[in-house]
Amino acid sequence: MTDTVKLLSLAVATPNNIILQTEAAETARRLFSRRFQDFKYLARVFENAGIRKRHAARPLSWFEEAHGWQDRMAAYAEAASALFRRSTTAALQRAGIAANQVDCIVTASSTGLATPSLEARLAGEMGFRGDIERVPVFGLGCAAGVSGLAIATRMARSRPGAVVLFVAIELCSLAFRLDELTRPNIIATALFGDGAAACVLRAGESGIAEIESTGEHLFPDSLGIMGWKIDDTGFGIILEQSLPVFAETHLRSAIAGILERSGLSLPDIDRFICHPGGAKVLTALETSLDLDEGSLDIERDVIGDYGNMSSPTVLFVLERVIASGLPARSALLAMGPGFSASCITLRRVS
Fold first, then answer.
1. Rounded-to-integer distance, Cα 303 and Cα 191, Å
2. Could you confirm whether 142 is annotated as catalytic?
3. How many CB atoms sit inside 10 A of residue 76's CB?
4. What is the DSSP code (8-state) at residue 291?
5. Which of 23, 183, 273, 293 is 20 to 30 Å from 2 by CA-CA measure?
6. pLDDT per position as a tens digit, 180-232
7. Which of the following is catalytic: 104, 142, 172, 199?
């Protein structure tokens, strides 16, 4: 069928500032240990997270100073624009498509605000047409790499032949807080990084993979598991300690339900491509989905090299899975605020 939506290309980008996990641990110790009596206990997360390095919108020294909304959002507009430009340019080049051929852009980001939105700021420079359709998406958090791609898929499916660009950009590091002497904030400084990914989609005959089905599941009474609180200083992370246990207990049935609505079942999936939210989350996913221990090896490699970048992270995993050989059918999974689970199934194009 020529009206099925195909993934034509995928490209990723990261900021140039690299923070080694050992450097992050030492800086956090210096900034928090004397002011937060539980820091000694929490500091183990820097060693146990399975992260070697991360990329950040600003150098490590920037995070040793106090910043408010204006500083953070100025940094977001600058760094996110650069990542949008780099990831999008690479994805379009890989697809052999010019910017003026793009008909719609879906941009997902939950770690900063820019109005006009990022794609509008860069439209003239990139060469997008004046009649391009723009869909900025905020608030999906870590799930947006999958949920946003699903939105872009529906846009492409509604207009066969139209070129749809999906971009996921997150600058999680800009939410690090000196004033938040809390467990979630310390974990955030040990876990999160910055990055972007861009995908080019079109309904037609050729591509890397067919986007076969999409679906989401919103869990009841789970708003407090993950999200942002917002105050005068900026975003502050909400992150429940029970997240891995919740995933291990509830994810399997949610994903099974999503697949069932598309006439599929868990055994139909050759590989689950998961958002690596953290080392404990990956172990919980393997348990919940009845995978062999260590099956999510590429996910562990990605989080080791980049940390949790929120929405683009699962697309970094997908890029490596494609490079190593995409199986016949795979399922892209991510969880995020809501609390929610998102799933997309992909079929390799022969």
1. 9
2. yes
3. 24
4. P
5. 273
6. 778 878 888 888 999 999 999 999 878 999 999 999 999 888 787 778 888 88
7. 142
